[in-house]
Specification:
Layout (H helix, E strand, L loop, with lengths): L1 E4 L7 H15 L6 E4 L6 H9 L2 E4 L10 E4 L6 H9 L3 E4 L3 H15 L3 E5 L5 H7 L6 E3 L5 H4 L4 E7 L5 H12 L3 E6 L5 H14 L4 E5 L5 H13 L2 E5 L7 H4 L4 E6 L5 H12 L12
Parallel strand pairs: 1-12, 2-3, 2-4, 4-5, 6-7, 6-8, 8-9, 10-11, 10-12
Helix pairs in contact: 4-5, 8-9
Length: 290
């Protein structure tokens, strides 16, 4: 089968930095002495590798002994976590993505300037939960139908967005917000350019192939967004974590497959999937295209 890879795919610099920091911290400590507050990134295979290297997972700081080394995940945490860790005499290693850090700072500044902060994003996502804790009463919206009940009338609104959201969706939401009565609207772009580039490359590739495979954690927001974008192009799209989830019927009858991957997906998963797919015969009984 012919396989084409997206020109932008896989690890972003924030994920690379988080993994490098986690590996360096583990190398400096005895196994079991480094604890992460949830998955460092949204990729099960990478997290399992870090666990085999000695990383523990926990979400309960109060259960940790003083001077335990605590790794903050790339999605970031709220200021109360830093305060609690200091009170418990824990040693913090901060792997928060720099762009998430910026979003946290922007939210705090908007609040200090007197704006009602509104974040466009998934309220249940760990990044959003962390960012919104940097100001009181942040409104989180992700659907136009939620705006009427959520937004104050005649308010001064400060708008930010989840870093992994698609620009088109954010623009649509901002347009809908602007149709509601407000006194002032301040918009700060908090989108990740690396994620945007992967979204553009995925859409571009999806228009050239018969079927798309999007690789990455099933709970990864940016990978889910890639799958949504490819599907909206109109091509058959499958969101998988690894080659082990591939089923022949996904590619049967197709000649050209596209492969992209979320920002938390390592190269070894992408390469294995592409190599295996190249050997797949989409039309049994006839020569496979290579």
């Amino acid at each position: 089968m012919q396989v084409k890879l997206a020109r932008k795919r896989g690890f972003c610099f924030g994920v690379e930095d988080a993994i490098e920091l986690a590996e360096r911290t583990l190398a400096e400590h005895e196994p079991g002495h480094v604890v992460a507050l949830g998955p460092v990134i949204h990729n099960r295979q990478v997290v399992e590798q870090l666990e085999r290297a000695g990383l523990n997972q926990s979400a309960e700081l109060e259960r940790l002994a003083p001077h335990t080394t605590v790794l903050i995940r790339s999605h970031g945490v709220g200021p109360e976590t830093y305060d609690q860790a200091r009170d418990l005499q824990l040693e913090l290693v901060d792997a928060t993505c720099v762009l998430v850090k910026r979003a946290q700072t922007v939210v705090r500044q908007l609040h200090e300037e007197g704006y009602q902060v509104v974040m466009i994003g998934d309220a249940n996502h760990p990044e959003v939960r962390g960012v919104t804790s940097y100001a009181p009463n942040v409104i989180v919206v992700d659907r136009e139908e939620d705006l009427a009940a959520a937004l104050p009338s005649r308010g001064r609104l400060g708008i930010v967005a989840q870093t992994t959201h698609a620009p088109e969706h954010v623009a649509q939401m901002i347009g809908a917000i602007a149709r509601h009565p407000f006194r002032e609207l301040k918009i700060v772009n908090t989108l990740c350019l690396e994620v945007v580039r992967r979204q553009e490359a995925a859409a571009e590739l999806a228009r050239e192939v018969d079927v798309m495979f999007v690789l990455g954690g099933l709970h990864s927001a940016n990978t889910q967004e890639l799958a949504r974008i490819c599907s909206e192009v109109g091509v058959d799209t499958y969101h998988l974590e690894t080659w082990g989830q591939f089923r022949p019927e996904m590619a049967r009858g197709h000649q050209v497959a596209g492969v992209t991957a979320g920002a938390s997906t390592p190269d070894f998963i992408i390469n294995e999937f592409a190599d295996q797919l190249r050997q797949f015969d989409p039309l049994p009984g006839s020569p496979s295209t290579t």
